[in-house]
Design brief:
Rossmann fold, globular
Amino acid sequence: MEILRTPDERFDSLPGYPFAPHYADVPRGEGSGTLRMHYVDEGPGDGEVVLMLHGEPSWSYLYRKMIPIIVDAGHRAVAADLVGFGRSDKPAARTDYTFQRHVDWTWAMVEAAGLDAITLVCQDWGGLIGLRLVAEHPDRFARVVAANTFLSTGDVPPGDAFMQWLRFSQEVDEFPAGGIVNMATVTDLAPDVVAAYDAPFPDESFKEGARQFPVLVPISPDDPASAANRAAWDVLTKWERPFLTAFSDSDPITRGGDLALQSMIPGARGVAHTTIAGGGHFLQEDQGEALARAVVTFMTVHPAA
């Protein structure tokens, strides 16, 4: 497995992102050796853990508006960079990336960072990976906040918006990570913010993980990840710990997913679910402060058992 690593200087002086890097070595999943996985770790070490998992093609920079609010509330804010993104290592071949490896890599980072009694905040692919982790390690999670995400099994055909995105992601000559984030927000991002989303990718060779993510979403019942995701749903449909949906009001890709989660997961009952007004798919960019406040309120109203 050939590994690419983005030079550190590409992350210097990014707007609104003053956080010190932390790293965990996680097993590659093929032969010997490890990958370096990056995460932000801010706030008191004994605070309640809030683990934030990003989606495609963003990185922990997406949570920069939320981290200070969560820390100010006395919590430990951890925002991971999935393998292939941000400051984490980037396997060079698309075939190096599978759904199961992303789950395994991310869990290995959770273990290395010593995270427990976790409040998961997940969006986009952060939910596909994060909800699998909740189902496979339910005792390690105290609460879940799901924002613009779902755990698909391929048993229900995807919507037109996702299929359009899938075709675009595979056919576009140059994969414009920062431009994609900008297109999926309601607000128009400043050029230096768009550039920050491009920072992890010095050239197209660093984008194989980003290119591969869309084709890893199960869209047919016999997808390689379908059986494991169905097994996860067997657990999630019995999950009774607090589960909040905080979807935005302007995301065509995940629209309606919040209602499905609320109806299927017992822990969502009796929770004051919220719709984040003025947010696109990447609601952390459009309304990060509002989402952070919703997370803090949810944790206060539903204390960990």
